[in-house]
Amino acid sequence: DSYTSLNPVDESDNPPKGAPHFEETEQALYDRVSLTLDRLFEHHKKENDSICIVSHAPCLQAMALTMEGKAGDPSSTSFGPWSLGGITRFSRPIDDDDTNNDTNNRASERWTCDFYSATEHMPGEYKAGVKGAWSLPSFVRK
Fold first, then answer.
1. How far apart are CA 57 and CA 63, in angstroms?
2. Where are the alpha helices (DSSP H) in the chain?
3. What's the rounded Cα separation, in Å, for the pair 34 and 30?
4. What is the pLDDT along the chain (142 residues), one digit of tens a residue?
5. Are the C-beta atoms of residues 80 and 134 closer than 8 Å to each other?
6. DSSP 8-state secondary structure symbol assigned to residue 6
7. CA 96 to each of CA 93, 100, 101, 117: distance values in angstroms, whole numbers, following the listed order
8. Which of the listed residues 7, 41, 98, 125 has the most CB atoms within 10 Å of its CB?
9. Where does 44-122 have alpha helices with state H?
10. Which is nearest to 56 in space by CA: 81, 84, 92, 37?
11. Distance CA 114, CA 116 (A)
12. Whole-angstrom Cα distance, residue 139 to residue 34?
């Protein structure tokens, strides 16, 4: 099988909301991540697959906010800077008799953050999660 993007880049002058189009604002990043997550979860809803997403800090931080239900507004989030090499895991309940329930498949519904930006696996000075930590501009607390 070949790879097909569920949210391909749109190079037009007027891309639809959520389509990757670079350079992008932070709000456009939140829109793109939300749409991409919704499409991934919709694509995998029948199998209830586990999904591993590997990306860079801006997208991962935006995904965490989206799954927390606070996309675009980190003012009330408990999440902070993304540690270099940090691992985050979200989980959700899957009902045995209702595995295709649409509420299980929205990026911002029914997810629990099990851990955020964990760095116990990192070597040496990176294990504490401070060195190399990064944050989207809207996460920076004044």
1. 10
2. 26-43, 57-68
3. 6
4. 667 788 888 888 888 888 877 788 888 898 999 999 988 888 877 666 778 888 888 888 899 888 888 877 778 888 888 898 999 998 887 665 544 455 445 555 678 899 999 999 999 999 988 888 888 887 765 5
5. no
6. S
7. 9, 10, 11, 30
8. 41
9. 57-68
10. 84
11. 7
12. 17
Closest CA to 83 of 43, 110, 52, 123: 123
* Residue with tokens 């040496």, as numbered in its chain: 124
CA gap 63, 123 in Å, rounded: 25
Residue 51 corresponds to which amino acid? Answer: I
What does the CA dihedral 105, 111, 115, 121 come to, rounded to 10 degrees? Answer: -10
Provide the token pair at 128: 């504490």
Location of structure tokens 């989206």: 66
